[in-house]
Amino acid sequence: MNQFKPFHLAFPIRDIEETRKFYGDLLGCEIGRSTEKWIDFNFFGHQLSAHVKPDELAAAHKNEVDGKNVPVRHFGAILPWEEWHSLADKLHAHGIEFVIEPYIRFKGEVGEQATMFFLDPSGNALEFKSFQDPSQIFAK
């Protein structure tokens, strides 16, 4: 793959403190600058800016993929295989309700991947993935 190029994503939230706890404490994201209206996180090397704007929170539209209802609007990270499994265990231990429980897609096929979906406290959908073979992230 090419040299790592971090992205920036700004998204709406309803509350700074619940967001700080979720992304900072639960997901382990380093907290950057913040005010009473927004907070930045180091989201696995990428910059997330969470802005208090509850009226902008999206309705949960879904699309069927592999027989599962995937939230159309979502973001997340691709983690190393063992880190993904550790996060799944941690989320289970903290009682996180999954939109789509952790599972393996394309088992034994090109692009085999682990995936899971869950919501942050504001209802923003997150997907975390991992690939047995990271060179297959964009495989067809």
What is the oligomeric state here? single chain
Shape descriptor: globular
The CATH superfamily label of the largest domain reads 2,3-Dihydroxybiphenyl 1,2-Dioxygenase, domain 1
| Total count of helical runs of at least 4 residues | 2
In angstroms, what is the radius of gyration? Answer: 15 Å
> What is the total domain count?
2
Report low-confidence residues grouped into runs of 5 or more.
none
What's the β-strand tally? 10
Order of strands across the main sheet: 1-4-3-2
Pattern of helices and strands: EHEEEEEEHEEE
Summarize the main sheet: 4 strands, mixed
Class based on secondary structure composition and strand pairing: alpha+beta
- The second-level CATH architecture of the largest domain is Roll
CATH class (first level) name of the largest domain: Alpha Beta
